Amino acid sequence: MATTFAATADRSGRLFYTIMGIAIAVLVFAGYAQSYYLTHWVHPPSRTPAMTPWLHVHALSFTLWILLGIAQPALAASGRVEVHKRVGYAAVGLSLIVWALGNLVAIQAIHVGYKGLGDPYAFYSVTFFSIQAFALIVALGVWMRHDHEAHKRLMLFSNAAILEAAVGRLPLEAVVRTAPFSFYFGADLVILAGIAHDWATRGRIHPVWTIGGGLLVLSQLFRLAIMHTEPWLAFAHRMALLA
What's the farthest any 2 CA atoms get from each other in the chain? Predict the structure, then answer.
């Protein structure tokens, strides 16, 4: 009975991470469709910043990372583990680019990118902590790459940590009206999906979701708590001088 349950959980797990990668990619495409992916065919929203070479490189690296969120679990699920590992080495380099450019464009957005979202220096707290959380989670995922159960959850979790910008660009008035609370919706849904899947297939929840997910949610509340404080605004003003 236990063997049957474990086999079912393993098959379900292989499918779950690929499906979640696809779902995240769809969300990212929906969020950036009008402001980036489909700008040749549709008029971008008024709050879309002018595209610069750095923004194009950022968009390309971010898109490649999101696509890896589909390809990597699919490779592992199909038994192509050696290919998965080789791609993983390249993914480490890509993650550094995503992190570096994410920080750069977040600073640039203080000047031009947070239109219609209130005080841009306050709103910088959303993106600043998002990209640092991404880096920390990826680093943990690389460090724990030999622990397959932790590794696959951490890599999915890393994508959840950087969904705020995509959710914030969804063409829904409710998203803008309820910002920045609404921006966390995508990340929290991924955490809840991970919890539900673990509970249904393993009968217990992995610490990546209980501890990691809990810490990410606490960080979301922390951002909201500090974003209008004098220390944070002073820090954001200093960071804005870098770009």
Answer: 62
pLDDT digits (tens, 9 = 90+) for 64-107: 999 999 999 999 989 899 999 999 999 999 999 999 999 999 99
Burial class (CB in 10 A: 0-12, 13-18, 19+), 125: buried
pLDDT of the residue at 177:
83
- Find, among 122, 140, 129, 117, the residue nearest to 227 by Cα: 122
Whole-number Å distance between alpha carbons of 23 and 219: 24
Question: Is the backbone peptide bond immediately before 231 cis, with ω within 30 degrees of 0?
Answer: no
Q: Which helix (H) or strand (E) holds 74?
A: helix 53-77
The Cβ of residue 46 has, within 10 Å, a number of other Cβ atoms equal to 7
Predicted structure pTM score? 0.89
CA distance 128 to 130: 5
Residues 6+ apart with CB under 8 A from 183: 126, 164, 165, 167, 168, 175
Dihedral pair phi/psi, residue 120, rounded to 5°? -65, -30
> Three-state SS for 242?
coil
End-to-end CA distance of the chain: 60
The number of angstroms, rounded, from the C-alpha of 166 to the middle of its chain's C-alpha atoms is 9
